[in-house]
Amino acid sequence: MHHKDLKIKLPRLMDKIQKLGQIGALPGGGVCRLALTDEDKEARDLLQQWMKQLDLEVKIDELGNMFGIRSGKSSGPLVMVGSHLDTVGTGGLYDGSLGVLAGLEIVETLNEAGITTARPFAVANFTNEEGVRFTPDMMGSHAYSHTAELENMLNAKAVDGSNVSIRTELERIGYNGQLPCGDLELAAFLELHIEQGPVLEAEEIHIGAVEMVQGIYWTEYIFKGVSNHAGTTPMPLRKDAGYAAASTAQFVREQVLKTGGNQVGTVGLIELSPNLINVVAQEARVIVDLRNTDEGALIQTQTALDAYVQRISKQENLSYQKQELVRFPPVQFDKSIVSKIEERARALNYSVKRMPSGAGHDAQMMARLCPTAMIFVPSVGGISHNIKEFTKEKDLERGCNVLLQTAMDLLNLG
Ligand code: HGY
Ligand code: MN
Ligand code: MN
């Protein structure tokens, strides 16, 4: 059978999505599987079980990245598909999970068809893609692609100030593997992912052939003032860290709108201390997420923000600390694979459009290592990082079929 007639089995894929979605399930729907928590361990254990049932060789590397390997006729560089099983605290069933489970579905489809591919095939689950419990995000693929020092990643401390690190949590859940990080030689990497934005749905297009991922900057500022009585302290005498944090969030919005174009900016985390109604905050922690497809404009926006933080600190008689948590430049995907995705989508009579990714993904790290590209499927209402995240089954099927066809093209080069 020529691989163009191969199709995945949607009920089998949906069954895995539903089963995995029970791990870390939130009472009102959605999931919470923060990196290296018990819920992440449970999901990893289930993935290992599925990989072994499919006769994949399971390998786990020093950063807990997981790989299920299916041998090919040659033992050379392998074609890898994958994504992540960790989620944000208000996650959905599809962000990350789809890319990993679609890889397993491809293996089942090939096994059923009795196909041995020229190149070996791997399905990957990367550690801590979301970066919400430990920064930076895309951590596992970041170290895999040798763009981050493994030791620095292992020493990363939890954002919530609890005294746990990636290293101690990997040991605790038993995923501190032996495989050197980045050891598997790759011929190509593909990631199927929900769009997490409104474009495909709005334009009624089935498939996104993703050309690039925008640059991402995460910066932490900690303002230090003096806590004081909210009633008795005259305004000119206050050293109010809370005010500096709030005005920084206001500045981010104003500056982002001034930059225009594709610039976006978010202040999703503000923590005040002591965080009490009638106490002027002595300390305020703000983490700012800036993104842009245009690196020059992103740097300009970040520079303006740093200057503002300096000004407001001086004006309010505060000191402050700054930490650069993430500095990921925009990444272009492999043009020939993007064209292949377009071609395969059209051959399956799916509509397809080239587009950038607003969200960060493991593929943006892997693109520095080997020819890489991504496939998007529509998100209903453009919603993600929200328990209401939803993608229609037909769209999941389309995305998985395009992944299968594109992977087969790459697997049979040899
Ligand atoms: O931050 C991101 O875009 C990704 O979800 N980690
Ligand atoms: Mn994701
Ligand atoms: Mn995400």
Offer a quick outline of the entry:
With 414 residues, the chain is α/β, with parallel strands linked by helices.
Number of strands: 15
Bound small molecules, by name, code or SMILES, are: (2S)-amino(hydroxy)ethanoic acid, manganese (II) ion
| N→C terminal distance | 19 Å
Q: What's the helix-strand series?
A: HHEEEHEHHHEHEEEHEEEHEEHEHEH
At CATH level 3, the topology of the largest domain is Aminopeptidase
CATH class of the largest domain: Alpha Beta
Mass-distribution shape: globular
Largest sheet: 9 strands, mixed
| Unreliable segments of 5+ consecutive residues | none
Q: At the fourth CATH level, what is the homologous superfamily of the largest domain?
A: Zn peptidases
Beta-strand content bin: 15-25%
Structural class: alpha/beta
Average residue pLDDT: 97
| Number of H- or I-type helical stretches | 12
Domain count, please report it: 2
The CATH architecture of the largest domain can be named as 3-Layer(aba) Sandwich
Structure description:
This protein is α/β, with parallel strands linked by helices and 414 residues long. It folds into two domains: 3-214 and 331-410, Zn peptidases (Aminopeptidase), CATH 3.40.630; 215-328, 2-Layer Sandwich (Alpha-Beta Plaits). The chain has twelve helices and 15 strands. The strands form three sheets. Strands 1, 2, 3, 4, 5, 6, 13, 14 and 15 form a nine-stranded mixed beta sheet that branches. A four-stranded antiparallel beta sheet has the order 9-11-7-12, with helices on one face. The chain has a two-stranded antiparallel ribbon with strand order 8-10. Strand 3, helix 3 (97-113) and strand 4 form a beta-alpha-beta unit. Helix 10 packs across helix 12. It starts with 9 loop residues before the first helix and ends with a helix. 49% of the residues are buried.
